[in-house]
Structures are given as structure tokens and as C-alpha cells.
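#structure-requests
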Amino acid sequence: MRLAHTRLSVRRVVFVIAIVSLSIWIVDAVKLSNKAARYRRKAEWAERMERRSREIDAMDPATRAKESEAEMDNPFLIEPEWNRRMIPYLEGLKRKYRYAAENPREPVAPDPPPVP
């Protein structure tokens, strides 16, 4: 059995290298896009939580007590002091993940532990 002989020219080698390079570039672009989208979702979550914390912080104590009875497990409503300490923490997370979404190639430091 005889194998087909393919002639290897410079043009064919360059063509194969271009196809492989393009494929690698497309895969990398998709990975970066997914990573940036994940960071944007985390930034949006932190922004929503920060906004909710500010709303709770602005509530008068009677309204906050009424809402905390309705939502038994919500620490934002039960502990107003803890809620005030969470606002800067959530602002930091929001800034960090917005920056990470704009620069997905750069490493992202782990999240600091939540405020006790």
C-alpha cells in the first residue's frame, strides 16, 4: 500500500500556520469575553447589594423593623451597623470587578473576607 505523497511548499506551511493561529486567537477571544462577562456579573451583583444596603441604611428604624420581621434571615435588615460596614466593602468589590471586566487578561486578587 502506497501513501499519497503531498508536496510541502512554503505557501502551504504558511497557510496552515495562519489557520492554526486564527483558531487559537478565536478561542482566546471567546475565553476573554466569557471571563469579562463573569466579572461584569459580579460587579452588577455588588452594585445591587450596595444599592440595597444604602436603601436600608436610609430607612427609619420603624420601617426597618417592620421589614426585618417579614424577612427573618436578612442580616442587612437585622443588623444596621453591619449593613453600614458592608457598604464600603461592596463598593470595593464593585470597583474591583469593573476594572477586571475592562482588563480580563490581568490577574484578579481574591476577595477579602466579608466584614465581621
